[in-house]
């Protein structure tokens, strides 16, 4: 049966699993043949006993199955070396990327780990993170049932693979020589909530000695889980200042006498008819302690009695002849409308054909397609990014003067709306491999891949709302010729009286007319041509030296096509974006040399030159050393440089996202538009650069023991970031002139409308730490094999130099207010497995260290940060192989067996989506049929 060994083996025992060509020229002469070389971190042929001098992590097919996950993104998320990947559909920090997953080695960014499929690149997802990072979507890879193993190179690999391999490489390698047909049925569900995944996967392999075929498919049908069903946040975490009923800015003396006296007492100390808060915008002296002149909707309290999502937040309720007048905000609790798990339909297929074209020539072609349709819930309508004016002449305006509406068109009584996130990925790759004169091994590969990503979300159209608030709204009204409030032209009523029946109701036909759909179709394409050759050189004390050299061409293309309203910035909350598109050609050459000086001492040298044109290029060397004096002990070290060029999006794209920010002038978190654009200076961004160092030991004090320790260090400079909008706001509040120029405020009230940021080269990110691996295996006297151990990563430092936030000690910190990512100092996975002929049992304990939340940091410092608790979960699995003919292999298991909630974070959503899994306890069952 499947033997569920679960340890992630140390580097000294990994490379033996790679498929290697014959290493000795004598053997080639006796039996010429071409075998595929898939050894991540080298292009040089290796004998089967080769030990990698680079830190290499291997997750094989049995380990993938034993962890119980039905998607590879969750497997990568659990790795202790992964920090800050974005795999959860967090509407609050990941506006566009629902349905995707990625990897973030060492917390250097989701675009700083190179993802390969069988050693070849795949196009990056056309959509970006909120920070403008493109990444390879691991949800778009071939079906997981097709993977033989995942090899992860944990140090920089630019010297061989080029840009993006700053933090390392994740190489997904499909099965070879598989014979037969496997069909797997799976069901996974949340035991406390109505959410489940239904999955079917298949794998067929066969052929002759000359021709081998592999075909795999997968379909996943995922039901949603909403924050209404599993609420992790508290009401104060998800309060919006903008609701319906909402609140009203009253900058000048109200015409209604009932409001006039209250307004004068609260907001106009010098009795000049202008609110104290507004006076500085008119060139008048500032009034100390002035507050924004805000009244809550007078119907807020009554409507809140019927709908708990409406939350009065008043500084005072002042008696008046028309009833109590609220000073403050009528807020809206949006926390129950969003998706913890989106509704998804995923289908993927993979096919590969290998054919021996001759004694020394092999051809291979592979193709795969992945389609994902995801729908994510959002609040009933978005708040307005600007504050529209409601004229004194509006028939429902009780103030008797022009006021500004802080709200949204649908709040109380509303239901969730959906955004659509559809991703289609296509890839085809062909490879020819041959041997010349039994000496030179050569390989040429051509690959083309595309991602087409469509996103659509409803929002209020600016021009139609501007007309409707002036009484010229409705599908039949012509604003140029109509009369306000005279049919077919109608007013939109922004006051609570539209809900209570005491004012003009907002009819469905008007509401439908006000809504449009911001949509865009983003496409990314990658074409690459790779060629290399390798051979053995003269014999040294430890064997033959090896040489490899080659070249690569890559063509990248990225286009964004937005709808017409988005091009005109015609959405009240989502604002809009311009279309853009660009492409570039990348050329590279590389060389590698392997020098086995003795049987115990091996040196590997590599170097690569890569040019993007326009003065963007890089030359990166790397040296690795392996010393293995005994079979039980080895010492490895590597040193080199890596780089990442600016992505096409960072170089040319513009993106408007919605970010939860704290305006220092107000002090409570709200969502605001953030528009990020290319560098305004016109000068190109510099490539990111990193100095990488790793040293590690592997030793076995006894036959049953495996122990590995690695020290790693990355000195990452010129990091390309989207300037952090919270850091810009904080710096502006402290008087920074440049930051103040990037903060857009309403001229009448001074309230925040938008933050403008730019893609820029940050100063630096320096991080180092330790990886630990310990495992022991025992044959039990009563039968079966027991294996236990743990893997852990300790981040000793994560130091950032941020252009806005300054110098940051980011280890053990959420890093909300800078360009870093959430970085708990410790992560660990302990495991125990037992297996005999028919039964298998495994259990994991996964630990994530505590850290602190710096979301609220207005210059007060770390002493004011909130703690985020440590988190430990247990995963368990049982497998049973039935003895009947064609009986299935049955698997039963639980993820988060004790149903631990993620640690509370006082932010929208209530948890840190870049660190913790919010789903709770998941049970699963699988049946694998083998034919």
Structure commentary:
With about 950 residues, this protein is mostly beta strands. It has 2 domains: about 10-230 and about 340-380 and about 420-460 and about 520-930, Maltoporin, Chain A; about 235-335 and about 380-415 and about 460-505, no CATH class. The protein contains 13 helices and 44 strands. The protein has a 22-stranded antiparallel beta barrel. Strands 1-4-5-2-3 form a 5-stranded mixed beta sheet. A hairpin with a 5-residue loop joins strand 30 (about 690-700) and strand 31 (about 705-715). The longest helix has 11 residues, at about 255-265. The protein is elongated, with a radius of gyration of 30 Å. The relative contact order is 0.13. Mean pLDDT is about 90; it is low at about 1-40.
Task: Summarize the structure in short.
The chain is mostly beta strands and 931 residues long. The protein has 13 helices and 44 strands. It folds into two domains: 11-232 and 340-379 and 419-458 and 519-930, TonB-dependent receptor, beta-barrel domain (Maltoporin, Chain A); 235-334 and 380-413 and 461-506, no CATH class.
Which features does this protein show?
single chain, 931 residues, mainly beta, Maltoporin, Chain A, 2 domains, 22-stranded antiparallel beta barrel, five-stranded mixed sheet, disordered N terminus
């Amino acid at each position: 049966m499947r033997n569920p060994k679960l340890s992630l083996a140390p580097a000294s025992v990994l490379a033996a699993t790679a498929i290697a060509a014959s290493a000795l020229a004598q053997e080639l002469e006796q039996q010429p043949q071409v075998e595929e070389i898939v050894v991540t971190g080298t292009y040089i042929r290796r004998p089967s006993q080769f030990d990698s001098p680079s830190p290499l992590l291997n997750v094989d097919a049995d380990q993938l199955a034993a962890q119980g996950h039905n998607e590879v993104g969750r497997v990568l998320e659990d790795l202790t070396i992964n920090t800050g990947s974005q795999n959860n559909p967090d509407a609050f920090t990941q506006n566009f990327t629902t349905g995707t997953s990625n990897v973030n080695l060492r917390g250097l960014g989701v675009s700083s780990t190179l993802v390969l499929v069988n050693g070849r690149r795949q196009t990056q997802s056309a959509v970006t993170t909120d920070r403008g990072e493109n990444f390879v979507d691991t949800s778009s890879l071939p079906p997981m049932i097709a993977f033989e193993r995942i090899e992860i190179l944990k140090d920089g690999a630019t010297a061989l693979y080029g840009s993006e391999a700053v933090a390392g490489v994740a190489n997904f390698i499909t099965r070879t020589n598989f014979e037969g047909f496997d069909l797997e049925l799976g069901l996974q569900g949340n035991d406390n909530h109505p959410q489940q995944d239904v999955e079917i996967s298949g794998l067929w392999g066969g052929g002759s000695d000359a021709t081998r075929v592999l075909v795999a498919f997968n379909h996943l049908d995922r039901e949603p889980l909403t924050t209404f069903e599993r609420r992790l946040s508290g009401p104060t975490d998800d309060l919006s200042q903008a609701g319906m009923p909402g609140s009203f800015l009253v900058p000048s003396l109200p015409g209604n006498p009932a409001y006039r006296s209250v307004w004068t007492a609260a907001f106009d100390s010098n009795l000049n008819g202008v609110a104290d808060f507004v006076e500085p915008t008119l060139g008048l002296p500032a009034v100390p302690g002035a507050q924004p002149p805000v009244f809550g909707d007078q119907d807020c309290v009554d409507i809140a009695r019927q709908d708990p999502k409406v939350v009065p937040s008043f500084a005072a309720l002042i008696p008046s002849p028309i009833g109590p007048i609220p000073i403050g905000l009528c807020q809206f609790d949006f926390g129950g409308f969003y998706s913890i798990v989106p509704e998804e339909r995923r289908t993927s297929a993979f096919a590969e054909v290998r054919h021996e074209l001759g004694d020394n020539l092999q051809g291979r072609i592979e193709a795969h397609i992945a389609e994902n349709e995801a729908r994510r819930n959002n609040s009933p309508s978005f708040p307005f990014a600007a504050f529209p004016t409601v004229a004194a002449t509006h028939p429902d305006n009780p103030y008797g003067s022009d006021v500004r509406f802080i709200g949204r068109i649908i709040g109380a009584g509303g239901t969730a709306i959906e955004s659509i996130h559809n991703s289609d990925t296509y890839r085809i790759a062909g490879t020819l491999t041959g041997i010349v004169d039994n000496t030179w091994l050569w390989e040429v590969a051509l690959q083309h891949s595309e991602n087409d990503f469509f996103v659509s979300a409803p929002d209020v159209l600016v021009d139609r709302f501007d007309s409707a608030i002036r009484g010229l709204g409705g599908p039949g009204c012509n604003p140029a010729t109509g009369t306000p409030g005279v049919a077919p032209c109608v007013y939109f009523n922004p006051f609570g009286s539209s809900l209570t029946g005491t004012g003009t109701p907002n009819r469905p036909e008007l509401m439908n007319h006000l809504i449009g759909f911001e949509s865009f179709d983003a496409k990314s394409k990658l074409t690459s041509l790779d060629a290399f050759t390798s051979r053995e050189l003269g014999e040294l004390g430890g064997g033959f030296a090896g040489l490899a050299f080659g070249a690569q061409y890559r063509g990248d293309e990225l286009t964004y096509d937005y709808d017409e309203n988005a091009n005109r910035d015609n959405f009240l909350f989502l604002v809009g974006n311009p279309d853009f598109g660009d492409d570039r050609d990348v050329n590279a050459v590389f060389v590698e040399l392997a020098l086995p000086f003795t049987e115990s001492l091996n040196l590997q040298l590599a170097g690569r030159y890569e040019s993007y044109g326009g003065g963007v290029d890089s030359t990166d060397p790397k040296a690795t050393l392996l010393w293995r004096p005994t079979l039980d002990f080895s010492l490895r070290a590597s040193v080199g440089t890596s780089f990442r060029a600016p992505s096409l999006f960072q170089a040319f794209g513009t993106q408007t996202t919605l970010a939860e920010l704290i305006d220092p002038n107000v002090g409570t978190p709200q969502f605001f538009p953030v528009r990020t654009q290319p560098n305004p200076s016109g000068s190109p961004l510099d490539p990111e650069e990193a100095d990488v160092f790793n040293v590690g030991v592997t030793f076995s004090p006894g036959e049953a023991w495996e122990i590995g320790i690695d020290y790693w260090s990355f000195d990452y400079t010129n990091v390309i970031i989207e300037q952090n909008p919270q850091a810009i706001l904080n710096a502006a509040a402290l008087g920074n002139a440049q930051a103040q120029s990037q903060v857009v405020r309403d001229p009448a009230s001074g309230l925040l409308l938008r933050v403008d940021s730019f893609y820029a080269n940050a100063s630096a990110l320096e991080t180092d730490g330790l990886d630990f691996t310990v495992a022991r295996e025992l044959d039990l006297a009563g039968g079966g094999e027991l294996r236990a151990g743990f893997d852990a990563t300790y981040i000793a430092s994560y130091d950032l130099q941020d252009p806005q936030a300054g110098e940051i000690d980011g280890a053990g910190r959420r890093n909300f207010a800078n360009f870093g990512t959430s970085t708990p100092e410790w992560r660990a996975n302990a495991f125990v497995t037992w297996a005999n002929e028919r039964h298998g049992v495994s259990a994991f304990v996964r630990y994530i260290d505590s850290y602190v939340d710096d979301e609220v940091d207005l210059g007060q410092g770390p002493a004011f940060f909130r703690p985020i608790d440590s988190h430990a979960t247990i995963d368990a699995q049982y497998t049973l192989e039935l003895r009947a003919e064609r009986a299935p292999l049955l698997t039963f298991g639980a993820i988060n067996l004790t149903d631990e909630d993620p640690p509370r974070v006082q932010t929208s959503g209530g948890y840190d989506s870049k660190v913790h899994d919010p789903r709770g306890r998941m049970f699963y069952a699988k049946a694998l049929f083998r034919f």
